[in-house]
Structures are given as structure tokens and as C-alpha cells.
Write a structure and sequence with these properties.
The protein has 173 residues and is mainly α. It has five helices and no strands.
């Protein structure tokens, strides 16, 4: 399959979104093992120099010691990779919407809202953890090495715009 021949009906976009749901759930499972008590503490600010760990730096694996962190740290690398995978699955679903094109407008709005939620959430977390990051708006099947880093402000703006679309298209509960 390629993205050009994999999308013929809405159910195939649903299947692409299942990958995003699974990755989102994996991130919560990742939080359990990486962040200790399952509350994704690092993604919520615990470990920051102004907050510290509720049970001390040892429980956070030393994440209060920012001076000691390296980009090669496996936990940070894992968070980076997982968040970009989530954004990639969302991008694939969004491209599927473009390829199919003639979906029921309400169904298309709902599918887009789900994908934009996952992509917006991923970039919100990327900005929180890493500052400005490269913003990837299209699914790519080719290797690319010329990404440029956006500012933290632009990364947040991108995430917020996606989350606004998600809020407008998801059902109210």
C-alpha cells in the first residue's frame, strides 16, 4: 500500500486514526513506566526546577537536574519519537481525507477533528518538553534531513490552531 491507493473510504481513515489512538494510549503507558506513578508527571511539569518531584529527584530519575540531561538520554529520545509518531499518524489520516475528498461533510469534519486533536496534542507536548521543534504538516514516505526548528511560540500556535479545529469538530459531552 501507498497513501495514494490505501484510502478509498472513510473506514480506512478510521483505521489510520486507530494507530493514533493506540500511540496516544502508549504514551499514557509510557508515562506509567517513565514518570513513576502513571500521571505523566513530566508532561505536566513535575520535575521542573520550580516544582521538583513530589517524592524527590530520585523518583523522577534525576529529571530535576536539568544540567545533567543530555539529548541522548533514552527517555527523552523515546518521548520525542513517540510524539512525532503520533503526529505522523494524524498527518496520514489528514492526507487520507484529502485523497478521498468526497466524504459526507459531517463525517469528514469528525475525522479531521480527531486527527487534529492528536497532532495538536503532540505538538503541545513537544513544545512543553523541547521548546521550538520542527513542525511537520504532511505525512512523508521519503527520508528528509532538512527540517528547521520553529520557535516555541510558533510551535504552540500551530498546536493551538489544531486543537481549535478539534474542539469545533468533536462532539460535546
Amino acid at each position: 500500500y501507498t497513501k495514494e491507493n490505501a484510502f478509498e473510504k472513510a473506514e480506512q481513515i478510521d483505521a489510520a486514526l486507530v494507530r493514533a489512538y493506540n500511540k496516544f494510549n502508549d504514551m499514557n503507558g509510557y508515562a506509567v513506566s517513565f514518570f513513576g506513578d502513571g500521571t505523566a508527571n513530566f508532561l505536566k511539569g513535575e520535575g521542573a526546577d520550580v516544582l521538583g518531584g513530589a517524592r524527590g529527584a530520585a523518583d523522577l530519575g534525576g529529571f530535576c537536574n536539568y544540567w545533567a540531561l543530555q539529548s541522548t538520554n533514552g527517555s527523552f529520545n523515546g518521548a520525542w519519537t513517540a510524539l512525532y509518531q503520533l503526529a505522523s499518524y494524524a498527518n496520514l489520516a489528514l492526507e487520507g481525507l484529502e485523497i478521498i475528498g468526497d466524504l459526507d461533510p459531517e463525517k469528514a469534519k469528525y475525522l479531521e477533528a480527531q486527527a487534529k486533536f492528536f497532532r495538536g496534542w503532540a505538538y503541545l507536548r513537544l513544545a512543553e518538553c523541547f521548546g521550538g521543534v520542527p513542525i511537520v504538516e504532511k505525512f512523508s514516505e521519503e527520508l528528509k534531513f532538512d527540517y528547521t526548528r520553529e520557535t516555541r511560540e510558533n510551535t504552540y500556535t500551530f498546536a493551538i490552531e489544531d486543537l481549535k479545529v478539534a474542539a469545533a469538530g468533536l462532539p460535546q459531552y
